[in-house]
Amino acid sequence: MRTTKVIIGLSAAAALFVAGCGTTEEAGGGERDTASGDPITVVDSRGKEVTLDGPATRVAATEWNGVEHLVSLGVMPVGVSDIEGYEQWVSAAPLDDTPKDIGTRGEPSTDALGPLDLDLLVVTDSLTEGALEQIEATTPVLVIEGGSTEDAIGSMFESIDMIAKATGTEERATELRTEFDEKIAEGKAAVEDLGATGDQFAFSDAYVDAGSVTIRPFAKGSLVGDVLESIGLRNAWPMEGDPAYGLASADVEGLTALPDVHFWYEANDSFGDPYADELANNAIWKELPFVKSGKVARFSDSLWMFGGVKSMEQYVDAAVEALKE
């Protein structure tokens, strides 16, 4: 299981190399309980108790969902893995100019972590083998799930709640949940008003390797898929995704299994658009029912598919706008 999560996590990173706007929102500020000097114990996704002297203020994060959770909670991290990539892909929770780059998401640099004098490092369960143990020897580490198809939205909030407890921002975490619920209700009402309740969608990204286009369907249980189903739509992908992220794999021939759906996808100008470029003149692509009916829409750049509450709210808005077109 660990191997699968590592591969999928790296697959997400590969999208930065080979392929993968809503409104930008500043992180809101719930009051932080920095006055309390009482120890805080948080049980992370491993079931391990992580005890801190008090609310963590100097916090770094490796995977970008953890970074987004921190910023959304009003905690600007002092260290972030691959800042350049984060800023290309995540617009919902922007960084200021203070975080230091701590290396790759799969294996942060211990040399970069050392001078930061961290109270806490937030990581996911997709670090390369041995990295967690090495870091944990000197720094308190909170492990959150990268994802879970059993309950993708629930897993997201479990991670937020863990981080909120560790940083004394539980009030803001409650606000984030309320804001998310309000956005889902707003999106559901908009879908109903458009007469689209029950419509089928297929969301994906894609990348090119050695001239061949590989498509990544976000199947049932994926975070984006579950969010869009929450506003009254139906995920049409027939294949099963991996157990962590709900990601499957297909080629252009595999798209022939889809009916006349709303075909939505994520791309990024920094890494190209295989659907608009490599597949534009592909005979199979041009004959797909949703291509012929004009139901293909590229969502705006910088909506992170594996992000947190604010990224998922952007996906609600993007879906509603696509339905209007």
UniProtKB/TrEMBL annotation:
Protein name: Iron complex transport system substrate-binding protein
PROSITE patterns in the cross-refs: FE_B12_PBP, PROKAR_LIPOPROTEIN
Keywords in alphabetical order: Signal, Transport
Organism, scientific name: Prauserella marina
Gene Ontology annotations of biological process type: iron coordination entity transport
Domain of life assignment: Bacteria
One GO CC term, this protein: outer membrane-bounded periplasmic space
Annotated InterPro entries: ABC_transptr_periplasmic_BD, Bact_iron-sidero_bind
Pfam families: Peripla_BP_2 (PF01497)
UniProt record similarity statement: Belongs to the bacterial solute-binding protein 8 family.
Predominant localisation class: other
Annotated localization: Cell envelope
